[in-house]
Design brief:
globular, 24 strands, 4-stranded antiparallel β-sheet, single chain
């Protein structure tokens, strides 16, 4: 991979950019600056990046239909009207626990949502992974410090998730009709080097693309956990990839400047920006969420 494959998609520098997701109908990428409570959106072909202050920490969104989207925040699941921007709480999640916030999320092919919570200071074991489908909420895994890398195989029979603090991506069999895990999770990949597993997405061939926080790259793993490709980025803290484009054949990758020293930020002027990676990937468009 060469550097000319990577370009800046949005020059808005997020303190903690996360949760990118693409809407093919409007040809728009959505993402968040978690700690500053910002929803960002950029329509392809336009220069402007729109920002909306949500008034609370938020980390991911999912399309419900052409008029509505679900926003995952520190207080729960909110339905947002795309036209007016009005948000209404749909399902409270840890709303009374002011020490936690939302983090990574992904929609299962059946329309269920997996999402994680964590301590605002990444307190050990303070987080959980939840399942949400047709109005029902269940806790799947507890005692997680930094839930990340939630992703699914194209047929919905495999789910992935990680605790970034532990340095492992887990793989678990999944019910294709409900998105519920079946059986015990097993280690899919273990972190090596200085970096950590952050967000992931799985393409149509089953390759898992993971943002390697602290290593400045996106790494690709085969379904059996073998590292097969590494894409360098001009920042040390990439946070999450998403397939973009009408054919889902490219990657957008968010990043962050949080916790970087002044010296490191000077050396990484693009830290916090969102990137476009021109790869011949067989990506998948996100399914709509069934609430």
């Amino acid at each position: 991979m060469t550097a000319d494959l990577v370009s800046v998609l949005s020059d808005h520098a997020c303190e903690l950019g996360e949760g990118p997701s693409y809407d093919p109908v409007s040809d728009t990428l959505y993402w968040f600056d978690i700690v500053n409570g910002l929803l960002l959106e950029k329509r392809f072909g336009e220069d402007l990046t729109m920002t909306t202050q949500l008034g609370q920490m938020a980390s991911a969104q999912a399309t419900i239909d052409g008029e509505r989207q679900l926003i995952l925040t520190e207080t729960g699941l909110h339905v947002r009207d795309r036209t007016t921007g009005r948000m209404a709480l749909h399902t409270a999640v840890e709303a009374s626990n002011i020490a936690t916030r939302s983090n990574d999320a992904r929609v299962h092919p059946c329309g269920a949502l997996w999402f994680g919570t964590m301590g605002k200071q990444a307190e050990a074991g303070a987080g959980r992974v939840y399942w949400f489908f047709r109005g029902e909420l269940r806790e799947l895994y507890a005692g997680i410090s930094i839930p990340n890398s939630i992703a699914f195989s194209a047929d919905g029979t495999v789910a992935y998730y990680a605790d970034t603090a532990v340095g492992r991506i887990m793989r678990v069999a999944c019910n294709a009709r409900t998105g519920m895990p079946e059986g015990e999770p097993k280690v899919f990949a273990e972190s090596q080097g200085e970096g950590s597993f952050d967000g992931s997405v799985v393409d149509a061939d089953g390759t898992l693309w993971n943002a390697r926080w602290g290593e400045g790259r996106v790494a690709a793993y085969t379904p059996d956990g073998k590292l097969v490709r590494s894409v360098p980025l001009p920042v040390s803290q990439p946070s999450c990839p998403a397939f973009v484009g009408k054919h889902a054949d490219r990657l957008a990758v968010t990043s962050a400047w949080i916790d970087l020293s002044d010296e490191a930020r000077h050396a990484q002027p693009d830290a916090g920006r969102t990137f476009l990676v021109d790869l011949p990937v067989k990506g998948r468009l996100e399914p709509d969420l069934l609430i």
